[in-house]
Amino acid sequence: MQKSFTPGVTAPPIHAPVRWYLFQGDRLIVDERGGAPAIPTAKNVGDLGLTATQTQYLGVHHDVVATDCFSGLAPDDMALPPGYGAHDLRALFERFDDFEIGVAGRAKQIAHWTRDHQFCGRCGAATELVIGERARRCPACGLSSYPRIAPAIIVAVTRQTTEGARILLARNHRFPAGRYSVIAGFVEAGETLEECLRREVAEETGIQVTNIRYFGNQPWPFPNSLMIGFTAEYAGGEITLGDNEIADAQWFAPDALPLVPPKISIARKLIDDFVTRYTQSATALRTW
Ligand SMILES: [Zn+2]
C-alpha cells in the first residue's frame, strides 16, 4: 500500500494511540528502542514519559493503519526516556524514507510556526489559534498569521561543449568539504521565479541562461523553504564569483562529478537527471 498523508487542522476525538512529532529545538524526538528510529505513538504525551507544549493537530498518516498525528515542542533540557533520541531531520535522511521525512518536515514547520507566532508582529498582543484554520489571529488588531513558506529557485544550468554536455555546479562556503551543488536562492518580494533564477545564476556565477523549464519542487524544512526546481541552458558569460557565499563554481562532465547532495534532495534529483540524460549508464554518484 502506498503511504500517504491527509492534512487536517481540527483534531477528531482520539480513541487510539497517535503519532507524536515532538521537537527539542530543531531536533525530532524518536523512539530507537527497536533499533531503527520510529515516531513515538501513544494516546497522551505523558504516556511516553515526555512533556510537550503548543501541540497542534497535523492530520492523518496512512500506512498499514491510519494514525492521527500531532506536533509539539518539548523542553530543550528535558531528559529523554531510555532508548529515545533527538536528531536534526538531516541526520534522519538515511534512516527515514522520503515520505516520512516529508511528514516530519511538515510537523517541524507547524511546531516552529506555532512557537514563533505566539505574539502579534504588528501590535505585540498574545495571538489565538483560529478554529478550523491553520492560522493564528491577534484579538487586539485582527492581524492573522499563517505558516510562512519561503520560495526558493534551484536550477541545473547545462551547456553543450565540443567535449560533451556540462553542468554548472557551485560550492558554498557552508557546504561539507568537497561538495558541490546546483545554483539556488530565495525569491525576493515582487520577483517572478524566472527573474529570481536569472538573478541568482548571474550573481553567483556570472552566467546568463535561456530556455528555462520547470522540473519539480520540494518542501525543504530548513527552516521553511519551498524549493522550485528548473533546468536552464547556458546563454553566455564566463564564470566569475561575484557573491561572497560561493567558494567555487565549475562546469562538470556527467562522468566526472564532485561530491553532490544526498539523494532525498531536489538538488540531487536535478544532478541525477543530467547524468541520466547525458551518459549511457548513469554511474553511482558519491554522496556528501
Ligand atoms: Zn495585533
Give the topology, please.
Blueprint: E1 4-7, E2 18-24, E3 27-31, E4 41-42, E5 53-62, E6 66-73, E7 84-88, H1 98-116, E8 128-129, E9 136-137, E10 144-145, E11 150-161, E12 164-172, E13 183-186, H2 193-205, E14 208-220, E15 225-236, E16 246-252, H3 266-278
Parallel strand pairs: 2-6, 11-15
Antiparallel strand pairs: 1-5, 2-3, 2-4, 3-7, 5-6, 8-9, 9-10, 11-12, 11-13, 12-16, 14-15
Zinc ion (ZN) is lined by residues 120, 122-123, 125, 138, 140-141, 143.
What does this structure look like?
- The chain has 288 residues and is an alpha+beta fold.
- It folds into three domains: 113 residues, Alpha-Beta Complex (Nucleoside Triphosphate Pyrophosphohydrolase); 31 residues; 129 residues, Nucleoside Triphosphate Pyrophosphohydrolase (Alpha-Beta Complex), CATH 3.90.79.10.
- It is built from three helices and 16 strands.
- The strands form three sheets. Strands 1, 2, 3, 4, 5, 6 and 7 form a seven-stranded mixed β-sheet that branches.
- It is globular, with a radius of gyration of 22 Å.
- The two termini are 32 Å apart.
- 30% of the residues are buried.
- Bound molecules: zinc ion.
- The site of zinc ion has 8 residues, from loops.
Amount of beta strand = 35-45%
> Which small-molecule species are bound to the chains here?
zinc ion
| CATH class category label of the largest domain | Alpha Beta
Annotated CATH homologous superfamily of the largest domain: Nucleoside Triphosphate Pyrophosphohydrolase
Radius of gyration over alpha carbons? 22 Å
Total count of strands: 16
Please report the distance between the alpha carbons of the first and last residues.
32 Å
Q: The CATH topology of the largest domain, please?
A: Nucleoside Triphosphate Pyrophosphohydrolase
Portion of residues within helices: 10-25%
Helices and strands, in order, run as EEEEEEEHEEEEEEHEEEH
Put simply, the count of helices is 3
The overall pLDDT average reads 94
Structural class label = alpha+beta
Q: Low-confidence spans: pLDDT under 50, at least 5 residues?
A: none
Query: How can the largest sheet be summarized?
Result: 7 strands, mixed
How many separate domains? 3
